[in-house]
Amino acid sequence: MNAAFVVFDQMTALDFVGFYDPLSRLKSMDFMPGFQWQICSFCDDVSDSQDLRFDPDSVGQSLSDFDLLVVPGGYGSRSLQHNEKFIDWLKTATPVPLKASVCTGSLLLGAAGFLKGKRATTHPKAYAELSRYCAQVTDQRVVDEDNIVTARGVFSSIDLGLYLVERLAGKETRAEIAKQMDYPFYSKG
Amino acid sequence: MNAAFVVFDQMTALDFVGFYDPLSRLKSMDFMPGFQWQICSFCDDVSDSQDLRFDPDSVGQSLSDFDLLVVPGGYGSRSLQHNEKFIDWLKTATPVPLKASVCTGSLLLGAAGFLKGKRATTHPKAYAELSRYCAQVTDQRVVDEDNIVTARGVFSSIDLGLYLVERLAGKETRAEIAKQMDYPFYSKG
């Protein structure tokens, strides 16, 4: 399984690292030794809103061959949803069978047309903005609708990561990873 | 207020980004506009255990003038605790009035002598290893003992960040930041 972890300039670091930690443990803790990922960007320079830099593994390459796409949110998403070139790049992920987002990352999935007719969620402050892209905005922390999984605000990135771990590798694996992360809560999708 | 956020090779990314998110919001959300930080390393090349790269702002510079020191954990800490040059560098933080760690970062604070005679915590799998450095190992998620604040495993980095936000800027600020992070729990120190 090969995952594309999208990064973009002015993203929120925890939106990315929150799902990255549990998902990368599928490999590092040997639950899915074949689980691989690439950090995929549309531009070379990627920093969070406070100048914390992230280095992409690939820039501008097609996303079509991945098995999983995960898109974080952050201030940058507010303008990127209207950036035709970025959205055209994101649309190369159309064949990816499982797509996910954190926080305002769902605005990007929405702008690419992936949320049409579906229920979805985002940061509570962006519910109105998301509503133009999907059938129904919900306040669940993680929404899984026809292989499009959206999560709420920043911290829910960890909920999303653990949800995807469970979906890909089962409840026991999720429990083991949550224990190693010292995560004391159980948050359902 | 000027904080030193330590990074080191083979650290756990979420150990760092977990406290970085709430603490950096002290500035980005205008609660403490003068809150500044530097990402401080002892070596140029810093990646987490899965090759996610972090760029330090300063390398090998004295930590003595900072007001707050925060040290993440991760596999690298297991060898760094025995690395005399690294520990000598960390000891330059001796005058820093408030020091904190996440997960096995407490082994590094311990090796620098900062935990002598104090209660402290770490990842549950490292309790025995920590015991040689401190008076008592506890299983609290966040322990604040004489201005040395230690937190448990990976995820408790967020608890630590929110705890430090409350200590530096009060309960209301913590509540506002937790709300913006969409953090649904209240975890006491």
Walk me through what this model shows.
2 copies of one chain form a homodimer. The first copy, chain A, is of the alpha/beta class. The first copy, chain A, is 35% helix and 18% strand. Chain A has a single domain, classed as Rossmann fold (3-Layer(aba) Sandwich). In chain A, the strands form 2 sheets. A 7-stranded mixed sheet of chain A has the order 3-2-1-4-5-9-8, with helices on both faces. In chain A, strand 1, helix 1 and strand 2 form a beta-alpha-beta unit. In chain A, helix 6 crosses helix 7. The longest helix of chain A has 16 residues. In chain A, 55% of the residues are buried.
- H-E order of chain A: EHEEEHHEHEHEEEHH
The total domain count of chain A is 1
Q: Which strand order do you get reading across the main beta sheet of chain A?
A: 3-2-1-4-5-9-8
Strand content of chain A: 15-25%
Brief rundown of the structure:
With 189 residues, chain A is α/β, with parallel strands linked by helices. Chain A is built from seven helices and nine strands, in the order βαβββααβαβαβββαα.
Topology:
2 copies of one chain form a homodimer.
Chain A: E1 2-6, H1 13-28, E2 36-41, E3 58-59, E4 68-71, H2 75-80, H3 84-91, E5 98-102, H4 105-111, E6 119-120, H5 127-131, E7 136-137, E8 142-145, E9 148-151, H6 156-169, H7 171-180
Parallel strand pairs in A: 1-2, 1-4, 2-3, 4-5, 5-9, 6-7
Antiparallel strand pairs in A: 8-9
